[in-house]
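Need a sequence for this fold. Nothing fancy.
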């Protein structure tokens, strides 16, 4: 929990890098660009929220994790060692994350939306896949990935096959679905509908989510806003809170 920001500190939010562990030059470029961005903000960052789908596929065996991401891992370790809080919310592509980043890099891991208070402002933060599954296929996929028994069964596969299978599924999923699904108006957005329901139960100053691959800044009422951090595949969007105001940037 972050209760108070120093006057010269900020909180950053980013999501949906979809980094691959294969020799994909576009993914390598995204990783290098993201590390450069982290290096640029490290001096004024009090905390960084990574809102899911940072990796295109992630599965942790007891002694094995997907290869790659050395630049990113090194930079995140440097930042947590320097006292910067990093909060990681798993998305639908990396929801099989367990404790590796927590144990090795001191990163806080969340599997559901979480509440935070920063400088007296209340935030509801998450990825959004679990609240925006509209089709039966999406709901079934979320159930399968969240089921501990099925997760344990998947772990029985040798990593050579289990990680390869997961990477192929992720790639085929992104090829099948567009990077940004058509925007038919805010009223039809499933995350927005979830937020409207949440607002009836409790006040939040900011709702911050990813998943949608569409940067959004929506004024909900006089006191509440919905920010979607977009994606880093094409647009390199992110959000920043300076203790008083929240901005969506690129």
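Here you go.
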């Amino acid at each position: 929990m972050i209760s108070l920001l120093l006057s010269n500190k900020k909180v950053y939010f980013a999501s949906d890098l979809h980094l691959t562990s294969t020799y994909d030059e576009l993914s390598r470029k995204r990783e290098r660009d993201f590390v450069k961005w982290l290096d640029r903000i490290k001096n004024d960052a009090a905390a960084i929220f990574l809102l899911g789908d940072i990796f295109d596929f992630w599965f942790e065996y007891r002694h094995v994790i997907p290869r790659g991401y050395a630049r990113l891992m090194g930079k995140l370790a440097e930042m947590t060692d320097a006292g910067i809080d990093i909060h990681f919310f798993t998305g639908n592509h990396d929801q099989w994350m367990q404790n590796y980043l927590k144990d090795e890099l001191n990163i806080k891991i969340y599997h559901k939306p979480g509440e935070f208070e920063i400088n007296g402002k209340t935030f509801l933060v998450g990825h959004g896949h679990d609240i925006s599954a509209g089709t039966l296929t999406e709901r079934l996929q979320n159930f399968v990935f969240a089921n501990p028994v099925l997760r344990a069964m998947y772990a029985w596969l040798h990593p050579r096959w289990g990680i390869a299978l997961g990477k192929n599924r992720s790639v085929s999923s992104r090829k099948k679905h567009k990077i940004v699904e058509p925007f038919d108006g805010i009223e039809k957005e499933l995350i927005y509908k979830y937020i409207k329901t949440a607002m009836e139960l409790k006040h939040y100053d900011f709702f911050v989510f990813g998943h949608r691959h569409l940067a959004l800044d929506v004024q909900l009422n006089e006191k509440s806003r919905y920010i979607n951090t977009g994606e880093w595949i094409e647009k390199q969007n992110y959000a920043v809170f300076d203790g008083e105001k929240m901005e969506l940037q690129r």
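For context: Helices lie at 25-41, 70-81, 100-105, 136-146, 148-155, 159-176, 190-201.
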